[in-house]
Specification:
The complex is a heterodimer of chains A (751) and B (273). Chain A is mainly beta. Chain A folds into 3 domains: 104 residues, Sandwich (Immunoglobulin-like), CATH 2.60.40; 101 residues, Ferric Hydroxamate Uptake Protein, Chain A, domain 1, CATH 2.170.130; 523 residues, TonB-dependent receptor, beta-barrel domain (Maltoporin, Chain A, Beta Barrel). Chain A is built from 5 helices and 43 strands. Chain B folds into 2 domains: 129 residues, Immunoglobulin-like, CATH 2.60.40; 112 residues, Immunoglobulin-like (Sandwich), CATH 2.60.40.10. A 6-stranded mixed β-sheet of chain B has the order 12-20-19-14-16-17, with no helix packed on it. Chain B has a 5-stranded mixed β-sheet with strand order 2-9-8-5-6. The chains are: A mainly beta (751), B mainly beta (273). At the A-B interface, β21, β22, α5, β36 and β37 of A face α1, β1, α2 and β9 of B.
């Protein structure tokens, strides 16, 4: 099999351009010390071939530490770093999969960075981050700007925005849920991903109906040279994947199902909540985007989560039964065509969502059917491009609520259970235009954008201007500034004619960011970003926004408040809300990253503050957001040791705010103690700290590849407080403990 | 929303912290009950208020109690904030330690803000309640309790405890480490007719719920209910007592509450057999 290695010279010259003080000489040998002849050695873009004795010499290269690439038939490619001064001895490892290698050198410029503070992740790399359970999308939680969720539950808190204010897209199709229930796994397995990009804020006009951040996930196309399959079995789930040529193109598919519910049911525990999740994906591609007919892609993906008691018939002590289900499916076709400077992409899609939570038959069920169309057109020039598009979605919103009616302003509390159901169609129209121009000898990039949206639910038009300016500085430094406005429509449940507020409008966030990225020695880089954000028109419970309930109320803080934020993302709040809330946030994100060499990893630190204010008529005080974490530090590293790879992740985060209980009184008619709140969100839980370790081993044989991984979260079994609980009279406090040591063991087989 | 609160609570309970003593166990001074006689009075009536305060051993004490009545027109969530002494009506205490709540005085103190007491409803059940706060300090521990006194067209009565039974017999002793059924039976004639909105009601006695507290051992539940059929047939619920093995006596209190806030209590000292 002929295999090509393509090198981009720009990648090799990314390090600071310095000059070697003297010619470089060295020898290439194998593991036994025997010389390797006719090996290709590349240093600073200069290529030479070793002689019969494995020796080589290179003149006229720059000084300082440089990347060194060595490629030879029958050996694994070697990429390392070397400094001048001594002859090099480069040792190659035999690898049976590399033969007839031809080295191809490409010249080009590194792409101009035009997105501020976006974190691009390679799934193959981040999927092996310790503590992520072999899930690239869970590794997102280790990035700057991402707050820590208690218990590792799902949902993303980007730059202090509520999870409902951020959106996830797979190939341009909005995904209602990023993680399976409880954050056990993301909705798509890592091997099916091509890449993912996290934009915690100040993103461009291409994305809308979101006032927080955006996660763009890209699936990969199938390899079509032959059919191949793979299976992966872990402690919690099993998955099977396949790909190969089909109908003139290629198809890749995957299926996954957890089995923790079956294990728990067989063990017959006294009372256990058993999560069960399943997901499936399929993607078929045909043609090339450069051909006249373009490239056609058809894909379907879905997810199904269910949470119930381990054994049917089990119930809580007071007879409560619980059933939760969340599932969605999306089907889409994408046509893409590139013709010279023009490119066009059209993606119609249709989907169905259902989210249901029932306790003793009471609760809420939400069913949506979105029909969407994205169409983008772009024209490029030497020094820029102009793009525009449509982003349309029509949704049938349906919900069925059976619960105690929410309290309305001016009305007394009522425990009467009411049944409500509603359905309506609403269409959202988005149109955007975005330009990109390079000026000042190509070192300055300006990207103005404008987005026009019409929100059908709230019947309003909004305009969001956005602009980003990036400046390429000497030495590979980049400076990026962005400002923008971002509107988000209200949720359908919040507009219910009986219990909601039909006058509810969109909320809006104004954001700004300034960042600097710089290369460092030894294939490292550092990115520092400062941001500021201010939100208006947040939908706030009109009755309780200023009512603090220490022991688990809306502003009580701790795990209760975090859970409420996550359930709000799925169900809405089921309360009467008004656009009287405001939010503000600011922070500093630092990402120090090492990309290659003996070890790789990153250190992410975020200092961030996020605050909220409810209805000023009731309470004008600004208070910390319930997931405000001033300090979040994550250090991730992985190093190969022989045939093994060891990985570690260390996390530290400030504790979430809580409202303490200042006292209590005995309600004699109920024979129960009632807590008396202290100052709202005035204290913090103790800080969170956790060490995760990971071990990988790969065996390559003629009949296939076997990968084994062991991922252990919280190896020290540290007790991390996630919430507060009190005794019956609130005279004693104890902490709700977070996850204990949690191993995840898996094996993957690829024939 | 209840479902969401339960879901959040389950997440917290799944990884709960240290074991904390249950509310049924008396391990510190406690204010277990406040009785209003009558529990529901008329707009011109008066009410006598008494308390059941026990020390850490479960022995009733006669510690001095400070009483104050709060305005009926505002929600009282925090007694110290929403019913501060300066905004309340202090109640006088007689020699026996009982406080007196005079509804006329309540109207005079709070009823001049353009909100006179509304006319009582047709159903002889409370349509208005006056919050009363009782504060007592015992062994350095400050205890605060709230009792709502109902106001209606006619007064209602408090239940009377006829007997506390252990395994359907008199509650006189326990088997160390053994399991016993504990119940409380009201005097039938002390129970008023249950209030209902049914336009053609079938007369039936109101039910009661009894809360149990022990100084040693453990209880499986906090309370048991007694309900009645129209022919006065009673369904008497019970709780399960796991008797202690480390002490030879325990003090038991039963606090019985009816549907209108009527309260009665009785105590027993049980010895190991």
């Amino acid at each position: 099999m002929r295999r090509y290695l393509a090198l981009t010279c720009a990648a090799l010259v990314a390090a600071p351009a310095l000059a070697w003080a003297a010619p470089v000489r060295g020898v290439v040998v194998d593991e036994a010390g025997a010389p390797v002849a006719e090996a290709a050695v590349v240093i600073a873009g200069v290529e030479v071939t070793t002689d019969a004795g494995g020796g080589f010499a290179i003149d006229d290269v720059g000084a300082g530490t440089q990347d060194v690439l060595v490629v030879a038939d029958g050996f694994e490619p070697l990429l390392t770093r070397a400094a001048p001064g001594r002859p090099l001895r480069l040792v190659l490892v035999r690898g049976g999969l590399v033969n007839d290698v031809e080295l191809v050198t490409l010249e080009g410029e590194a792409p101009f960075v035009d997105e501020p503070a976006a974190y691009d992740l390679d799934p193959a790399t981040v999927g092996t981050v310790a503590g992520a359970g072999n899930d690239a999308l869970k590794a997102v939680q280790s990035l700057p700007g991402v707050a820590r969720i208690p218990f590792g539950l799902g949902g993303l808190v980007l730059r202090g925005q509520s999870p409902r204010n951020s959106s996830v897209f797979l190939d341009g199709i909005e995904v209602p849920l990023l993680y399976h229930f409880g954050g056990l796994a993301s909705f798509i397995p890592t091997p099916l991903l091509d890449g993912l990009e996290v934009m915690p804020g100040t993103f461009g006009a291409r994305w809308g109906r979101t006032q927080g951040g955006v996660v763009e996930v890209r699936s990969r196309a199938a390899r079509t040279d032959r059919w191949r399959g793979a299976t992966e079995i872990s402690l919690t789930d099993a998955q099977a994947r396949g790909e190969g040529p089909l109908a003139g193109g290629g198809v890749v598919f995957g299926l996954r199902r957890s089995y923790i519910d079956g294990i728990l049911a067989a063990a017959a525990p006294d009372l256990t909540l058993a999560p069960r999740y399943a997901d499936g994906q399929a993607r078929w591609d045909r043609g090339s985007e450069y051909a006249r007919s373009g490239r056609l892609t058809a894909q379907v993906f879905g997810s199904d989560d269910r949470l119930t008691f381990a054994n049917p018939g089990d119930a809580m002590d007071d007879g409560t039964s619980l059933n939760y289900r969340s599932r969605f499916v999306r089907a889409a076709m994408t046509w893409r065509r590139v013709d010279g400077p023009w490119s066009a992409t059209v993606t119609p899609s249709i989907g169905a969502d259902e989210v249901s939570l029932r306790v003793d038959g009471q609760g809420i069920t939400r069913r949506n059917v979105p029909v969407a169309l994205r169409a983008d057109l772009e024209r490029g020039w030497r020094d820029g491009r102009l793009a525009g598009g449509l982003d349309l979605v029509g949704t049938r919103y349906g919900y069925d609520i059976k619960n105690e009616a929410p309290r309305m302003p001016g009305a007394p509390e009522s425990d009467q259970v009411t049944q409500r159901d509603g359905s309506l169609w609403a269409g959202d129209l988005g149109a955007w235009v975005e330009g990109f121009y390079r000026i000042a000898d190509g070192r300055l990039g300006v990207k103005p954008g404008l987005r026009l949206d019409r929100f059908g639910l709230s019947d309003e038009w909004v305009v969001d201007p956005r602009v980003a300016i990036t400046h390429e500085l000497p030495g590979g430094w980049t400076m990026a500034t962005a400002v923008g406005r971002y509107h988000q429509p209200p949720a359908a449940v919040d507009l219910d004619p009986a219990f909601g507020n039909q006058d509810l409008k969109a909320s809006v966030s104004t954001q700004a960011s300034f960042g600097v990225t710089a290369p460092l020695p030894r294939a490292s880089s550092v990115a520092v970003t400062a941001y500021w954000e201010q939100s208006r028109g947040l939908a706030v419970d009109a009755v309780t926004s200023a009512t603090a309930q220490a022991a688990g109320g809306p502003q009580g803080g701790g795990v209760g408040a975090a859970s409420r934020e996550l359930t709000d993302e799925q169900f809405g709040s089921y309360s009467y809300r008004e656009n009287t809330g405001r939010g503000r946030g600011a922070g500093l994100e630092v990402m120090l990253r090492k990309r290659s060499g003996a070890w790789a990893g990153w250190v992410a630190y975020t200092y961030a503050r996020a605050e909220r204010r409810g209805d000023p008529r009731l309470d004008p005080t600004w208070r910390p957001y319930v997931l405000d974490q001033p300090h979040v530090l994550t250090a991730v590293a992985a190093v190969p040791v022989g045939a093994w790879q060891l990985g570690a992740r260390l996390r530290f985060a400030s504790g979430n705010p809580i409202t303490p209980v200042a006292g209590a009184y005995f309600d004699v008619d109920r024979q129960d103690y009632r807590p008396v709140d202290g100052p709202v969100l005035s204290e913090r839980l103790p800080a969170f700290a956790q060490l995760d370790l990971r071990v990988d081993r790969t065996w390559k044989r003629r009949w296939g590849v076997t990968k084994l991984f062991l991922d252990v979260q919280n190896v020290s079994n540290r007790v991390n407080p996630e919430g507060v609980s009190y005794n019956f009279d609130y005279s004693r406090r104890s902490y709700t403990r977070g996850l204990p040591v949690f191993p995840s063991l898996g094996v993957e087989f690829i024939p | 929303m209840r479902a969401l609160v339960i879901l959040a609570g389950l997440a917290a309970a799944a990884c709960a912290g240290d074991e904390l003593a249950p509310s049924t166990q008396i391990t510190a001074p406690r204010l277990l009950a406040v009785a209003a006689d009558p529990p529901v009075t008329t707009v011109d009536g008066a009410v006598a208020l008494t308390t059941l305060v026990v020390d850490a051993d479960g022995v009733a004490t006669a510690a001095p109690v400070a009483w104050r009545a709060c305005t009926p027109w505002r929600l009282v969530r925090d007694p110290d904030l929403d019913c501060a002494p300066a905004d309340s009506l202090p109640l006088a205490v007689d020699a026996a330690g009982a406080a007196r709540l005079d509804l006329a005085a309540v109207r005079a103190r709070f009823g001049e803000a353009g909100a006179p007491l509304p006319p009582p409803g047709d159903c002889p059940g409370p349509t208005l309640a006056v919050p009363v706060i009782a504060t007592v300090t015992i062994d350095g521990v400050r205890l605060v309790a709230r009792k709502d006194v109902g106001v209606a067209a006619a007064p209602r009565r408090s239940p009377v405890i006829a007997a506390i039974t252990l395994d359907d017999g008199p509650a006189d002793g326990f088997a160390p480490g053994g399991t016993h059924r504990l119940a409380a039976v009201p005097v039938l004639d002390s129970l008023d007719q249950a209030c209902t909105d049914d336009p053609t009601p079938v007369p039936v006695r109101e039910g009661v719920r009894t809360y149990f507290y022990v100084s040693a051992g453990g209880l499986t539940e906090t309370s048991a209910e007694v309900s009645y059929q129209p022919d006065d047939t009673a369904a008497i619920g019970s709780v399960e007592l796991t008797a202690p093995t480390d002490v030879d006596r325990l003090r038991l209190w039963a606090v019985m509450i009816d549907g209108d806030g009527g309260v009665a209590w009785a105590g027993r000292e049980l010895r190991a057999r």
